[in-house]
Design brief:
Distance between the termini: 22 Å
Shape: globular
Order of helices and strands: HHEEHHEH
Number of domains: 1
Number of strands: 3
Structural class: alpha+beta
Largest sheet: 3 strands, antiparallel
Helix content: 55-70%
Number of helices: 5
Strand order of the largest sheet: 1-2-3
Length: 156
């Protein structure tokens, strides 16, 4: 379980550091948009009150706590499952990456009431209106990694 912890901590710190730097140091919360490598990579400030693509975004204050509880529950289930079923090195790292991302977004909800999204990528004449962050990438990559690196395990 050490690998899970260290992977989660590394992702969590990378996520929080990137958000602090972009939102506060670069002032994206005031500027709204910074062109980095148009149109491929831009920084666009978006406060996400829901889950991916703003789904379940609700102005009700309880939704914030429901989504924090959901992130904690998912992290707990991943840890429970990994402890029960076991996993190889790469599956443990993938679990840590997923948990670190979930915790990064949960801390945003605690601090700001919403998740700070800022990465925006577009291509080929399509203007992508959505933004995401390091934690979002980690949750997706960790979930895929758990499936890919757990696929070779045979049921008992």
């Amino acid at each position: 379980m050490r690998r899970v912890f260290w992977a989660a901590l590394a992702v969590f710190l990378a996520d929080q550091a990137s958000k602090y730097w972009v939102v506060h140091m670069l002032g994206l919360d005031r500027l709204g948009r910074i062109e980095v490598w148009p149109p491929y990579l831009n920084l666009r400030m978006a406060w996400n009150y829901g889950i991916n693509f703003g789904l379940f975004a609700d102005d009700h204050p309880a939704m914030r706590w429901v989504l924090i509880a959901f992130a904690l529950a998912i992290s707990g289930v991943v840890l429970w499952w990994l402890n029960r079923e076991g996993g190889g090195r790469w599956q443990e790292i993938a679990a840590g990456v997923l948990i670190g991302g979930a915790m990064g977004n949960a801390v945003d909800r605690l601090l700001y009431g919403a998740v700070a999204d800022f990465l925006n990528m577009s291509c080929c004449g399509i203007d992508n209106p959505y933004a995401f962050n390091v934690a979002d990438i980690a949750v997706f990559a960790g979930a895929v990694g758990m499936v890919v690196f757990g696929a070779g395990k045979k049921p008992a």
